[in-house]
Amino acid sequence: MTNLSEEIIGSRILVVDDNLTNVVLLKKLLEGSGYTDVTGVTDSREVKALYEESPFDLVLLDIRMPHLDGFDVMDQLRKIDSVLPPNIMVLTAQTDQETKLKALDFGARDFLHKPFDRLEVLTRIRNMIETHLLHKKMLLQNDELEQKVQMRTQEIQETRLEVVRCLGRASEYKDNETGMHVIRMSKMSQIIARKAGMSDIDCELILHASPMHDVGKIGIPDAVLLKPGKLDADEWEIMKRHAEMGVEILGDHPSPLMEMARQVAITHHEKWDGSGYPRGLSGEDIPLVGRITALADVFDALTSERPYKEAWPVEKAVDLIKEQSGKHFDPKLVEIFLNLIDDLCAIRDQYRDNFDTVAAE
Question: Beta 37-41 vs 88-92: how paired, if at all?
């Protein structure tokens, strides 16, 4: 017999036969040929526990045994949750077709007929182990490739999300010196969405889509966007166009994230009573993500300090939102909002604007 590789001779082999003589014979034969990890048992009831502790690369299994016969053992082994199915060679003195077919049906890969021929035993065992190890290598390579694909996919996803965040901050930097508003309102939107019954996936999407709610402001002339006083009628019409501009800027990519971002951009200025813009939608005709974003956006804007205004006290902002329930805001969302006020204030405190730092930069 040709020399065996270290990988093959180090394979874990289990010999199962109620006849101790057969177990000893096979162990000596295998160990004499260089195999270094051969276990033998005469009680078939021990096999399942041994295999679960550490799977074997090959199981040499007798059919006719007390307690559990070979078919019972194979039935136990194939029910074990394992990446690779058990690699089983049946030891039998029975050569009838029915026994062979039943063994194959229960998961056997090959047969050794008693009495054993030394050269045939070693050749069949080597071939079965080589095939099994190749399968293991392929699975390992597939796992490694899958991990690399997942890592690369995660990197791409993180890159996309960072571009999204930058796009959201870009719109805020035109009239919000730090851009922290989009971080706060997106986190507020997420926890409101969760309490409103949105799925985990959609809650994650709104976290990343809501920062783009005002991306259309990029297209509004500074003379209008940054005007210190009240806008006249013409200027207000220009300002309102930022909702539709946002949809144009976000494009038509069909990903769930961009679809939700477009919904948010076009609907976060709609109002429950139909007095909002740009489409004058009302009630539940306004997508839920738009209603949620509107609430988070207004609350954060009211309670946040700006270089040109002081922050409203939380109590005053809450009173306004209560007053606007059923007018500007979805009444059910206002109720959720009121129950979450402590969590929303915690977000506000954690992600405060720092205008001094921005000015220094």
Answer: unpaired
Mean pLDDT of 165-191: 78
pLDDT at 288: 98
Clarify whether residues 280 and 190 are in a common domain: yes
- What is the average pLDDT value for the chain, to the nearest integer? 88
Do both 117 and 214 map to the same domain? Answer: no
Q: What is the pLDDT of residue 325?
A: 98
- C-alpha dihedral sign at 145, 147, 150, 155: negative
Mean pLDDT within 215-243 = 91
Q: Is residue 202 part of a domain?
A: yes
- Of 125, 144, 163, the last residue of a domain is 144
Do residues 60 and 89 touch, judged by C-beta distance below 8 A? yes
- What is the spatial distance between Cα 89 and Cα 185, in angstroms, rounded to a whole number? 63
Take residue 53 and report the two structure tokens written for it: 């502790």
Q: Which residues of 18-27 are buried (b: 16+ CB within 10 A; e: fewer)?
A: beeebbebbb
SS3 172: helix
User: Which domain range does residue 109 map to?
Assistant: 6-144
Helix (H, G, I), strand (E, B) or coil at 15: strand
Closest alpha carbon to 29 in 85, 87, 91: 91
Clarify whether residues 58 and 189 are in a common domain.
no
Higher local confidence (pLDDT), 323 or 104: 323
Hunting for tokens 């270094």 — which residue is that? Answer: 36
pLDDT at residue 205 tops 80: yes
Is residue 244 a contact partner of residue 219, using CB atoms and an 8 Å limit?
no
Rank 139-153, 155-169, 309-323 by mean pLDDT and report only the highest.
Answer: 309-323
Burial class (CB in 10 A: 0-12, 13-18, 19+), 189: buried
Calpha distance 84→82 (Å, rounded): 5
